[in-house]
Specification:
The strands form 2 sheets. This protein has a 6-stranded mixed beta sheet, sandwiched between helices. The protein contains 10 helices and 11 strands. It is an alpha/beta fold. 32% of the residues lie in helices and 25% in strands. Helix 3 packs parallel to helix 6, helix 4 crosses helix 6 and helix 6 runs parallel beside helix 7.
Length: 276
């Protein structure tokens, strides 16, 4: 990719620990896929210990924006980005951090649960440590800590040697959350993490998000407006205003205000289901 100028468990020591929540700031972010511009000058502050929900119709750039936040956008051939993303004042595209370092500090949970099929539940939790070359003093304690933080230790503590794919869909998604937490990210990105789950599993994942929020910065893409209302502290509303135009952030605000008294009437139309 090119850059243009436009818990109750005692924490386990991990080498390179970056567990302090941090503010992630996007300033005038634009993005392209080859010559097609998909985002136009998007600015957003995602504060520590808060959940920010990215909402808006399909195709308005929410997931692209999310991937830009931890340099996943750059793995797509022809992708470009302009503007800046800073993590506690450090420009993640500025050269002082490698892509691996960025993705260690800014983790991601994807739309479809993706445990590693050849690994056990316990091995899945620790998989990110190997990829990031991160050391840990007590692997068993770290597995317990991360599964506890992901709200599933009691469900799997006697099954750690079973395959990760043996779990239900909701458990697999929480296993992926535990895996992301093992490298001590400061920010956790979640791209529609409940879209493939049943209502009961969705509720459990939402409870996990609520429990994690005081410990970490969370940014979630969701098309479920009730979910955004339940789990987030602030919302950013993305919209494509004209056919073929890039997506923009139309409005940002506290979630309650965005749902009850937004500044832009299009925001109210969207969150109340009049379009989108």
């Amino acid at each position: 990719m090119t850059i243009t100028s436009e818990s109750a468990v005692k924490p386990v020591a991990v080498a390179g620990d970056s567990s302090n929540p941090a503010t992630l700031l996007a300033t005038n972010v634009s993005a392209w896929f080859n010559k097609r511009k998909v985002l136009e000058r998007c600015s957003l502050s995602m504060d520590a210990r808060r959940v920010t929900a990215l909402i808006g119709p399909s195709g308005c750039g929410k997931s692209t924006f999310l991937r830009i936040l931890n340099r996943m956008h750059e793995v797509i051939p022809g992708a470009q980005v302009a503007g800046s993303i800073t993590l506690e004042g450090t420009d993640i595209y500025g050269g002082s951090l490698s892509a691996t370092q960025v993705r260690t500090r800014i983790g991601m949970v994807f739309q479809k649960p993706n445990p590693f099929p050849a690994m056990s539940i316990g091995e899945n939790v620790l998989a990110g440590l190997k990829l990031s070359r991160t050391g840990v003093s007590d692997r068993a304690a770290l597995v317990e800590e991360c599964l506890t933080r992901a709200g599933m230790w009691d469900e799997v503590k006697d099954r750690l040697n079973e395959g990760g794919m043996s779990l239900s869909g909701g458990q697999q998604q929480r296993l992926c959350i535990a895996r992301a937490l093992a490298v001590r990210p400061q920010v956790l990105l979640m791209d529609e993490p409940c879209s493939a789950l049943d209502p009961i599993s969705t509720r459990v994942v939402e409870e996990t998000i609520a429990e994690l929020a005081p410990q970490i910065t969370i940014v979630i893409v969701t098309h479920n407006m009730q979910q955004a209302l339940r789990v987030s502290h602030q919302c950013a509303f993305f919209l494509v205003e004209d056919q073929g135009a890039p997506g923009r952030i139309i409005e940002v605000g506290e979630t309650k205000k965005m749902f009850e008294d937004p500044d832009d009437p299009r925001t109210l139309d969207y969150v109340t289901g009049r379009f989108g």
